[in-house]
Amino acid sequence: MTKKDFFRIIIKLFGLYWLVSTLFTTIPNWVSMFMMHVDAIQIIGVSISAVIVILVFIFLVYNPDLILAWLKLDKGFDDDRVDFQNFNTENILKLGVIIIGGILVVNNIPNFLTQAFFAFKLQVMNNNDVVTLGQQSYYRWAINFLNLLTGYLLLTNYPALSKFLLKITQKKEG
Q1: pTM of the model
Q2: Could you give the CA distance from residue 30 to residue 89 in angstroms, rounded to a whole number?
Q3: 90 HSE (CA, 13 A, CB side)
Q4: Is the Cβ–Cβ distance between 137 and 115 less than 8 Å?
């Protein structure tokens, strides 16, 4: 595998991560925003955001060579080849599960702590005017907690999960 091919794969995987991250973070935020109230400005804002997300995904997945050329990622290496001698399918699956779990944990810790602080603040305020704000805060807090839990489970159970995924793949192929 050449360095250029390796970086193409990494960019495409980042595009896929972008899409999955949007599905699990941005869409729940939109739902919670629409739970408060809906008006034309919000609909326009969500529509523009959705178009931007889709365009970035398409750009990352279908045009990685433009990013390679712009950032010059394949330049400056001594060798043009990447050798993965000890990387079999199971090891690649393990690495992928670890990376996804780590990203979930790292991305959601700040949001979880922020939402926990706001939830605590709302409990202390005990004001009837902020009931809907409190519901929105608890909703986001729960989403961040589920993402953290998923990331933690992926990080702690990556060997079993990679074996399970490999077994499923081998059943489909065989």
Answers
A1: 0.54
A2: 38
A3: 7
A4: yes
